[in-house]
Input
Amino acid sequence: MAYLKPASLALLMALAACSGAKPEAPKLTLQPILYFDVTQNKLYGSGCNFVPSNGGMGAVFLAMETRALIKLDDHIVSIPVANDAVALPQGAHTHYAGPLYAATLTAVPGGKHKALGVVAVFDGHLAITDAKGQTVYDATGDTQCKPM
Output
């Protein structure tokens, strides 16, 4: 193994620091919001729920009229609706923004979209960013909007 002189090592470290590469933000592990969470926290109301394609059967994101909800470390986190939000079915919105996280839920262009009475189902894309604007969650999956 080659030995680096202290001056060479310092130069390599300085170059790495100047590269401008930001450390990647830790990714969120969203937990499914279960029936117990809904009843315990009184999360009733119309809106849309998002289930990621690779994440089982439980919704990890609830988009409602005034807020969106995610579950992290067994706690429900509320994200208020953003001023620039566009309406989705059943009073939900496309954009939510708070002090910790911002979330955007949109239909996948060219994806499936069905209306079954008052229920709308479509392929959705959910992106969540942290307070620094770094993406901490990004997934596609099934979105269902319905009255509750």
User: Anything to note?
Assistant: The CA atoms of residues 128 and 141 lie 14 Å apart. Confidence is low (pLDDT under 50) at residues 1-12. The chain has one domain: 25-146.
